């Protein structure tokens, strides 16, 4: 095993102040992209529904 204990793992050989923020930023970015994609999808569905209703009225 690479680390002898949980505290050694969390310390990351002295590089914890660089490693854990990098993990945190990555996680935030992934969550942000997922939220953004979901919002874009909802907006697209609404636009398509409005277009469908508009075209149904004019036909």
UniProtKB/TrEMBL annotation:
It comes from the Bacteria. Signal peptide: none annotated. The chain crosses the membrane at residues 20-37. The keyword Cell inner membrane applies. It is found in: Cell inner membrane. Keywords: Cell inner membrane, Cell membrane, Cytochrome c-type biogenesis, Membrane, Transmembrane, Transmembrane helix, Transport. Coiled coil: none annotated. It is a single-pass membrane protein. Pfam families: CcmD. Its main location: membrane. The keyword Cell membrane applies. Required for the export of heme to the periplasm for the biogenesis of c-type cytochromes. Belongs to the CcmD/CycX/HelD family. This is Heme exporter protein D.
């Amino acid at each position: 095993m690479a680390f002898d204990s949980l505290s050694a793992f969390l310390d990351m050989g002295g590089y914890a102040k660089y490693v854990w923020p990098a993990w945190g930023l990555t996680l935030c970015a992934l969550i942000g992209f997922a939220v953004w994609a979901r919002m874009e999808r909802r907006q697209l569905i609404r636009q398509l529904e409005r277009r469908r209703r508009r075209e149904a009225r004019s036909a």
